[in-house]
From TrEMBL:
InterPro entries: K_chnl_dom, NAD(P)-bd_dom_sf, RCK_N, Trk_Ktr_HKT_K-transport. It is found in: Cell membrane. The chain crosses the membrane at residues 20-38, 78-100. This is Voltage-gated potassium channel. The keyword Ion transport applies. Keywords: Ion channel, Ion transport, Membrane, Transmembrane, Transmembrane helix, Transport. Residues 27-101 form the Potassium channel domain. Residues 165-232 form the RCK N-terminal domain. It comes from the Bacteria.
């Protein structure tokens, strides 16, 4: 093997072992030594003014070599050939390599869920159910485009399934202080907890409520017992029970019910159920007035409302609607320009 090649490999290996501080020291030392040597060689045009010197050093070390500046003395040419160019190339290569390494490592941390998420007012999803979770994210991305960012936090050994669309955090437990802090649990606007194990969902919901008392928590349970228990500890939590058995029974008695419910929950096409808050400064009105106005102006159908945690579906037309009631309606798309006056 060529001795000069072996020397270059040894020098490169030594540079690669340098810490960031050592690399900076090497760059500064290289710049100072080059300036002193060129100055002693009488290359005043290369060393003064200082900005010209830095420019020359950069285009030389980066192999760009514009040619508008070059040594004129014999000593200067030897210095550039034996020191400025070889050392500059080595330092430049190491610097670019380190920068690329840092960039790749930062990207890999995000892909593997090891990076802290700098976000607030986001939707935090806790749990991984493969295609079910992907479908949930797909619907949220459709509804929340350019609104609330989405962060997925999982215990499973996976990488970010949608790296260009969502942020991602991995943890060993949904009650781990450090990991949940990286996911921004205390700054989340909504937390969705969906796990195959109800006990993990229950513990995660209690932890999130303790860290963010005002957050909107949605917890999916297979068993209704834990759902009721969570409501006693976290009144603000919205528990989503499994309705698969009820749906089968309903479809057996009223064929097509499952298709109807699927259509109402589909955010991509067809008539979909939405909700809107009746403004706090709006006047008292009736179901009949709002029903007719929403139908005529927006082709939307009012189907019910919620007041004080109680939901009324298909309410009588003469029933009063009060400010801050949550109205439920069906429409092709979410209506963004309701006029309440």
């Amino acid at each position: 093997m060529n001795k000069w090649y072996m020397v270059r490999r040894w020098i490169t290996s030594q540079f690669q072992r340098l810490s960031g501080k050592h690399v900076i020291t090497a760059v500064l030392s290289y710049a100072v030594i080059s300036w002193v040597l060129l100055r002693l060689a009488g290359e005043h045009a290369l060393t003064s003014p200082f900005v010209d010197y830095i420019y020359y050093l950069l285009v030389t070390a980066s192999t760009v070599g514009y040619g508008d500046m070059s040594p004129t003395t014999s000593a200067g040419k030897w210095i550039v050939a034996l020191f400025v160019i070889p050392c500059g190339l080595s330092i430049f290569a190491i610097g670019v390599g380190r920068l690329a390494g840092v960039t790749i490592e930062y990207w890999r941390k995000g892909l593997l869920g090891r990076r802290s998420i700098d976000v607030s007012g986001h939707i935090l999803i806790l749990g991984w159910n493969e295609s079910r979770t992907l479908h949930l994210i797909d619907m949220l991305l459709h509804e929340e485009k350019d609104k609330r960012p989405i962060v997925l936090c999982v215990r499973a050994d996976i990488e970010n399934p949608l790296p260009k669309e969502i942020d991602f955090v991995r943890t060993t437990s949904f009650t781990d202080e450090t990991a949940m802090s990286r996911a921004g649990v205390s700054d989340a606007d909504c937390i969705i907890i969906d796990n195959p194990e109800d006990d993990i969902t229950f513990a995660a919901a209690l932890f999130c409520a303790s860290k963010n008392p005002d957050v909107h928590i949605l917890a999916y349970f297979q068993e209704e017992v834990l759902s009721d228990l969570l409501k006693t500890h976290c009144p603000n939590a919205e528990c989503i029970p499994s309705v698969s058995v009820e749906m089968m029974a309903k479809s057996a008695v009223d064929p097509g019910s499952s298709e109807l419910h699927h259509e109402l929950l589909n955010t991509r096409k067809g008539m979909t159920q939405y909700a809107v808050a009746y403004p706090g400064d709006a006047q008292y009105t009736t179901v009949e007035v709002l029903f007719m106005r929403m139908k005529k102006e927006h082709d939307a159908t009012l189907i019910g409302f919620r007041r004080d945690s109680h939901v009324r579906l298909n309410p009588p037309l003469d029933l009063e609607i009060k400010p801050n009631d949550l109205l439920f309606y069906i429409a092709d798309e979410r209506v963004l320009d309701f006029k309440w006056d």
